[in-house]
Amino acid sequence: IATNKNPGIIQLELKDNVEGDDFYYIQGINTNWQKFVIPFTNFRDNYGWSSANDINPSSIKFLGISYDDNYLQIGKSITCKTGLVFVDNIQFEVNNYAPDTINPGTPYSLMSGDKPVTSGYSFSLNNILSVIADSDGTDPTIEGVFFEYSFDGITWYLIDTDYNTTDNQYSVNWNTSDIPHKSAVKLRIYAMDASGNISDYLTHDLAYVILESELIKPDQKVVTPNGDGVNDTLLFLGLINNFEIKIFNLKGKLVRKLTDTNYWDGKDANDNMVESGPYIYQAKYKDEMISGSVIVVK
């Protein structure tokens, strides 16, 4: 439990299908996460009388959680104040319960679509991230896998959580439109089980986020198609499939049209080498049209 104010007091209220309200107060709540274990015998009514015989743990119908910023004494009037209560996990346990304290296995095999993600990987605007977590084998108690990113490794932002445990693959959609382009981010992915245990982090540093249009646009300004292996072609690394490239001369005449070929080798539609000079390219990919210029030097 944590609150957005420091310090605070949390009131827990239980109701079963027979009796009225029974209460318990947790003091010293702050903005840091804390774990509390509360026996049912600690719950009392609002006058301080023990209600161990009143609340039937097997027939609880209501659990209320409220915030108060005053010191409360049992038997006094209660005025709940404005504040936020953050609850990570609630468990009801029977006597002699042995809690699960084993951390889940670390997720592995991070992919973006069908490509493995390694440090330095360039992400586009829309991505599908996926990992493997052995929820049906190593740890069947896994409840979900969390995907997060950070700029500094200190403050982490949630991308999303996949709670679908029907198989070992966990995936989320990541739209990077709110991240400055060409910025370096850190990724971490971890699994959590039903008892709140978390796995070690699967982390990747320096994963660059780049617009799809920037991935499409070639870095080359000059093409020298002389066969020496240096700048022989105009290369569009970000184009994968279902795209089209057109090359024009300065008079607007179409010189070459390429479909699902992500480079131009300096030749025209008749497979003849073009003359030296400036040319205009247009690359159409998905809903984007990217254009620019390049100089051919023979």
Helix content: under 10%
- Number of alpha- plus pi-helical segments: 1
Q: Which class do the helix and strand fractions yield?
A: mainly beta
Output the radius of gyration.
30 Å
Query: Number of DSSP strands?
Result: 21
Mean pLDDT: 80
Descriptive overview:
There is one protein chain. This protein is mostly beta strands. It is 2% helix and 41% strand. The protein has one helix and 21 strands. It has one helix spanning 212-216, and strands at residues 2-3, 8-16, 22-29, 60-68, 85-86, 108-112, 115-116, 122-123, 126-132, 142-150, 157-162, 169-175, 183-193, 202-209, 222-223, 234-235, 243-248, 254-259, 263-264, 277-285, 288-296. The strands form six sheets. The chain has a five-stranded mixed beta sheet with strand order 8-14-13-10-11, with no helix packed on it. It has a five-stranded mixed beta sheet with strand order 15-21-20-17-18, with no helix packed on it. It starts with a strand and ends with a strand.
Summarize this entry quickly:
The protein is mainly β.
Label this structure with key terms:
298 residues; mainly beta; five-stranded mixed β-sheet; 21 strands
Could you outline the blueprint of secondary structure elements for this entry?
Blueprint: E1 2-3, E2 8-16, E3 22-29, E4 60-68, E5 85-86, E6 108-112, E7 115-116, E8 122-123, E9 126-132, E10 142-150, E11 157-162, E12 169-175, E13 183-193, E14 202-209, H1 212-216, E15 222-223, E16 234-235, E17 243-248, E18 254-259, E19 263-264, E20 277-285, E21 288-296
